[in-house]
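Many introductory courses stop at the sequence. We go one step further.
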Amino acid sequence: MAEKRFRTAIIGLGFIGPEHYRNLGLIDNVDRVAVCDPENVEAKAAKAKIHVPHLYSDWRAVIDNKNIDAVHVCAPNDNHKEIVLAALDAGKHVICEKPLASSAADTKEMVLAAQKAEPKGIRTMVNFNYTGHQLARYAKYLVQTGQLGKLRVALASYFQDWLQHQRDFSPSRCMGESCAWEDIGSHGTDMVLYVSGQRPTELMADLVTYNKVRDKPKRPLLAFEDPHKLPPEEFDQVDITTDDYAHVIMLFDNDFRANVTATQVYAGKKNDLTAQFIGATDSYAWDQTRPDEALFGHRFKPNEALDRGTLSVEQLAALSIIPPKHPIGYGKATANQFAEFYESAASGKTIGDYPTFMRGHNVACITDAVLCSKRQGGIKVPVSYLGLS
């Protein structure tokens, strides 16, 4: 039987859309046939070296094209829900960038739509890409098989510096209710929930705005134009209330705790995601900037410095798509989960452990609770999952 192939379109050509395009090139049964962006789609596609038969400026035209089997939603966050629901209604497979949507009420609607479409063979995924790394999944394996003992504490952090200075500004990030937490705290949160297999019942949040005023450009900046080299008269000063630092303490059942920290004002840090899991007997630590290495910690014997080439877990072998000591980077980790998604869509059964819409919903519910805690001065608040489990 011939391999089932998928004609795929990408909606949104900001930073992440072209990344999806490149990573899809690693998937054997996918044909990249269309991209869409409401502004300068031809120029954006050319700049990203995207070569597809169809260019669209309206995402609705992508949905209406019956020859397109799957869509990757890489549009601004506020557009995710409308596009995803339309795509599912049209019978298309959907991969949506994180966050799945801007509120838990919206993600619940999207999860229910995905559940309705699933009996028809329609697959859905949210792109929490870091769990496509073999050693990130190994943490889950150790927890599931009891090799850390009873899980006590998880520590996750994500550090960047791209909003460190007053002149650093992003309208899509700096003008909402949450910036650092929603943007990168979501990755640490998903990692904790994924590895532990648990969801917090309560949390306390400390969200801080260090840069309370930022310089907003009066005109769109050119590609690679450095705002720090422009004169002050090129900017308007705007008040900022969204967080550039966030620290959240999560409380789970059975005395399990998690601390998740995110900041975008840490000089010298770019995309430093770390995750540590502390059990009653042993521990495990992973750093995505060194993704093929991890530390398996012990009390009464030497610690084990693991690398991807030393693992012998059968269900993780498919993620090792290149020989050991050739690092699995950002793109290949993403492609690992894309491959699982499209193999699942082709076979009609779930292959691998790619992130579902439910994972996106869980993170959205936690973000809602984080903002609720923030508005009340950081008090402990319950986390509601809106009846979904």
